[in-house]
Design goal:
46% of the residues lie in helices and 4% in strands. By secondary structure, the chain is mainly α. It has a 3-stranded antiparallel sheet with strand order 5-7-6. Helix 2 packs antiparallel against helix 6 and helix 6 runs antiparallel to helix 7.
Length: 689
């Protein structure tokens, strides 16, 4: 079917093109998303830069058209034969010159063996200099007349080695290409060229038997034939080793695959999101720069004969994994190019993905018991129905991941990163561990009841997470948060929780209204914090006349001095009852706080909006400062006022302002926390208060 006809039918609404022949057609840059090309013949079809989202290519046949493949294989065989014939003739010629020249052949064999151990890639210099060395060797008779046969023999060693290596490398390319197209053809090549080489020796032997030194020439011919056969075998071995992915010969493999993909099926730059290549034949196909998001490769054939570019398909272990979906106990750690990988239904028991990036991929229905995802990036990964029993999810990133219906019994979730967009519905879980080595079991006894795990660990939807990777200056934060609440006065922003991570980072979780513009609030919060931080640093510099290192030290001292990390930020991740949970806290009217250990939280009972007396206002201030004083008894007045400014909503300030106005200056000084209240109100009246 012609490309124009396919496009016309596609525009008309047809999506079923199962089994059609599209050989040699071009769909470059076209949109064919959702089409069904299963069992189609797409050899030499051009899909460059096309949109092939959710296209079905299962059981399709890609690669070179038959006439192209046949022509290129024949060309490679002819090149191979000519090179082997030339090599054989060279050996016989060298042997004819002098018996001592046989040492050149023996030395060449020894040197080539040394190079093969390190990889042919290290001998590129020998390949490029071969013609020059060979010409020098042929003209070395002048040197031989001056310095004797030893000089000639040395040059012959280099000439034989360089020329042999040149022939052998090109032969390896030829055989590599033949193997890409058909493995049986490669064996036929070896047998054919071996026969040719033997024929050379027999012919030359018969021609020279009438000469006086015919026995020597026959012997020399046999040596040349044997050497030719040896190097034919070596070139075939190098070709096979390269195509198996041996890193020593990766450049040979890359060139052979590039040549074989010339004129083949092209998906270069195409969007293959959620496309399906199951059971398809893919040799001589170009996937460079293609978008491979959740692309399915199960049981695909000749996937090792494609041109993968820099995608995960360039890794032999990953190719095998996506084809079979069964690779228990293997290590895939610290692989950063697995983004979008499709491992749906895979059996990955005890596999190790520590530090690897699998974001936007799918592991739906996979068996992941005892699997290691320590520090792995699983953001936006489909984990529906996976079995993560006893898995290690320490510091795993799960932002927007979907774990609906997953099994998590026995998993370690120390410092895992889940948020309001992480889906934890219908989780099957008897218990989990909050620390490595099966420490901090939750629940400590018994098992979770249905729905309890989700209720405990699912983050509230209406939150904004502010992440401070390099620590936090709390005074700058409190001031910026106050400015943020002023900016979004109608949004009623509040701090829900603060977490301190192991690496010294902090996560401040803000609770926001359902209809709030979360990205805008997050951006504003970060911008205000950076502005306040810069102002604080200017103040530090002015006060301390310090250098940069001293300013950093001062900031660290300030953070430690306030002890906020112990007060609000040091909760273990995902404990049964979240520490420092400030959701729904208003810090106005009366104050009824439930304190368990170092936990802060509870419900603030709103009292009447009547103006309290100075004593009542001071009592409320004392109640609000109680947690701060418990963790930092030496907190300064400035630190207390900064803390109170962050905790008291702007809409609730009038009560305290009224209490201050109703009292005289002497009365203010006499009541506990009167000076703090006065400084607090004065700060509110400032332009940036």
């Amino acid at each position: 079917m012609k490309a124009a006809e396919v496009l016309r039918l596609y525009e008309a609404g047809r999506r079923d093109f199962k089994g059609v022949s599209l050989r040699g057609q071009s769909f470059k840059g076209k949109d064919l998303s959702g089409a069904d090309f299963s069992e189609a013949d797409i050899r030499s079809t051009n899909f460059t830069n096309a949109n092939l989202t959710e296209v079905n290519f299962s059981e399709a046949k890609a690669g070179l058209q038959r006439r192209w493949a046949a022509g290129l294989v024949v060309a490679s065989l002819l090149l191979y034969g000519v090179l082997c014939f030339s090599t054989g003739a060279l050996y016989i010629y060298i042997s004819f010159l002098s018996p001592i020249n046989l040492l050149a052949l023996i030395a060449s064999v020894a040197i080539i063996f040394l190079f093969l151990r390190k990889g042919i890639g290290l001998s590129t210099l020998a390949l490029t200099m071969a013609p020059t060395v060979f010409l020098i060797a042929l003209s070395s008779r002048v040197g031989a007349e001056l310095f004797g046969n030893l000089f000639l023999s040395i040059f012959l060693v280099f000439a034989t080695f360089s020329t042999t290596f040149s022939f052998m490398v090109v032969c390896a390319f030829a055989v590599s290409f033949a193997i890409v197209e058909t493995a049986s053809m490669a064996m036929l090549t070896v047998l054919t060229v071996t026969a040719v080489a033997i024929g050379i020796g027999i012919v030359l032997a018969l021609v020279t038997t009438s000469e006086p030194d015919s026995i020597f020439r026959l012997y020399s011919s046999l040596v040349g034939v044997i050497a030719t056969v040896f190097f034919v075998r070596v070139s075939a071995y190098i070709a096979r080793r390269a195509l198996k992915g041996d890193i020593r010969d990766s450049w040979i493999r890359s060139i052979a695959l590039a040549l074989s993909a010339t004129g083949g099926t092209s998906f270069r730059g195409a969007t293959l999101t959620d496309a399906d290549f199951s059971q398809s034949l893919l040799k001589s196909t170009d996937f460079r720069r293609a978008v491979l998001m959740r692309t399915r490769w199960r049981d695909a054939e000749k996937l090792d004969r494609i041109r993968p570019g820099e995608s995960y398909l360039d890794n032999p272990k990953i190719r095998e994994l996506v084809i079979t979906g069964n690779d228990q106990g293997q290590s895939y750690d610290h692989l950063l190019n697995l983004e979008g990988i499709n491992l749906q239904g895979a059996n990955l028991v005890k596999a190790d993905f520590t530090g690897s990036t699998l974001k936007t991929g799918t592991l739906q229905g996979a068996t992941l018991t005892n699997t290691y995802f320590i520090g792995a990036d699983l953001n936006r990964v489909n984990l529906q129905g996976v079995d993560l029993s006893n898995a290690q999810l320490n510091q795993t990133q799960l932002d927007q991941a979907d774990l609906t219906g997953a099994t998590l019994t026995g998993a370690c979730i120390e410092d895992w990163n889940v948020n309001s967009s992480t889906k934890l519905a219908d989780i099957t879980c008897d218990y989990v561990y909050l620390k490595s080595n099966q420490q901090e079991r939750r629940p400590s006894q018994g098992t979770f009841q249905p729905g309890e795990f989700t209720a405990l660990f699912q983050q509230a939807v209406n939150t904004v997470d502010l992440i401070f990777k390099d620590g936090i200056d709390w005074q700058a934060f409190f001031q910026s948060f106050q400015a943020l609440r002023t900016q979004y006065a109608e949004q009623d922003l509040s701090i829900q929780a603060i977490e301190k991570k192991k690496d010294g980072a902090f996560v401040v979780r803000l609770e926001v209204p359902e209809d709030a513009d979360k990205p805008a609030i997050e951006s504003s919060a970060k911008e205000l914090y950076e502005t306040k931080l810069a102002l604080m640093e200017q103040r530090y510099r002015a006060e301390l006349n310090a250098k940069d290192g001293e300013i950093v030290a001062y900031r660290e001292q300030s953070a430690n001095l306030m002890k906020i990390t112990e007060l609000l930020a040091a909760r273990p991740p995902m404990s049964e009852t979240p520490k420092y949970d400030l959701r729904n806290a208003q810090f106005s009217g009366g104050f009824a706080e439930t304190v368990q250990g170092d936990q802060i939280g509870g419900t603030i009972n709103n009292q009447s909006a009547e103006t309290p007396s100075l004593a009542e206002a001071a009592a409320e201030i004392q109640a609000l400062l109680k947690p701060l004083e418990a963790s930092n008894p030496t907190a300064t007045e400035a630190e207390q006022t900064a803390y109170l400014s962050a905790m008291i909503l702007p809409t609730k300030r009038e009560r305290f302002i009224g209490a201050l106005k109703s009292a005289g200056g002497a009365a203010i000084e006499e009541v506990p926390y009167g000076p703090v209240l006065k400084a607090l109100v004065e700060g509110w009246h400032k332009p940036n208060g």
